[in-house]
Amino acid sequence: MKAGLHRTDSGGFECFFEYQKPSSMSFIEVVVTIGSVLLLLVTLPFSLFWCFKVVQEYERAVIFRLGRLRKGGARGPGIFFVLPCLDSYCKVDLRTVSFDVPPQEALTKDSVTVTVDAVVYYRIQDPLNAVVKVTNYSNSTRLLAMTTLRNILGTRNLAEILSDREAISQAMQTSLDVATDPWGVKVERVEIKDVSLPQQLQRAMAAEAEASREARAKVIAAEGEMKASRALKEASDVINESPVALQLRYLQTLNNISAEKNSTIIFPLPIDLISYFLDKGVKEEKNSHFVL
């Protein structure tokens, strides 16, 4: 019988009584326990080699006596005592363990087949639950990781899988951690290693990317030509306002030509000089017709 006070929501207290069934050993268990102790005393000191066990700092020992879990929780680190022929124990490693999730082929939300593999990091948080509540926590966690990865991939589009792997890893870690918590397993981290696409889809995506780059290059080239044409128009307007600027441009062109090592150099004549001779030839021709 257990009694106590319980605080209510209104701020008062109420008395409660709880009946606990005593955990008593059967007659056979008592006899076997006494026999094991007598055997331990008779075989001293050789029996001490089988009675004292040691677990490392990163290990815990879960002890069973005649099939029942001993009170006090898991033992360790250090030395602990077991009765020969009665007690059995199981060591549990508390260090972080990693395993590779085999490549899983799944159909995405937009009906694209992808193959994804991942890495899962986990550790034992509760050694008692890891031994008592699941047969093989390591194998169970592996199988659960594979099914969870396929389920999460089925809810995402291809673009999300390729660009937002961190969100997929976080969602997978949360789902695994909730499912493995009753087993005493804590999933610390999940990482997506690789995403494989079919060859035809890879070629289609490469062609799409190439076409996009070509279109962007053409747009940039057209914008450059437009800016260059505007600059040439402004320059021509400036030169047209000042004939001296045209002559300076002509001299600069001659300088550039002379700097090159060419065997033949063509000197362009100014347009004004050519027009002068053309006008003079036309006047002489008119005069000769008039004389005739």
UniProtKB/TrEMBL annotation:
The chain crosses the membrane at residues 27-50. This is Band 7 domain-containing protein. PANTHER family: AT06885P-RELATED, BAND 7 PROTEIN-RELATED. It comes from the Eukaryota. Its main location: membrane. One of its GO terms (cellular component) is plasma membrane. Keywords: Membrane, Transmembrane, Transmembrane helix. Residues 50-209 form the Band domain. It is found in: Membrane. SMART domains: PHB (SM00244). Belongs to the band 7/mec-2 family.
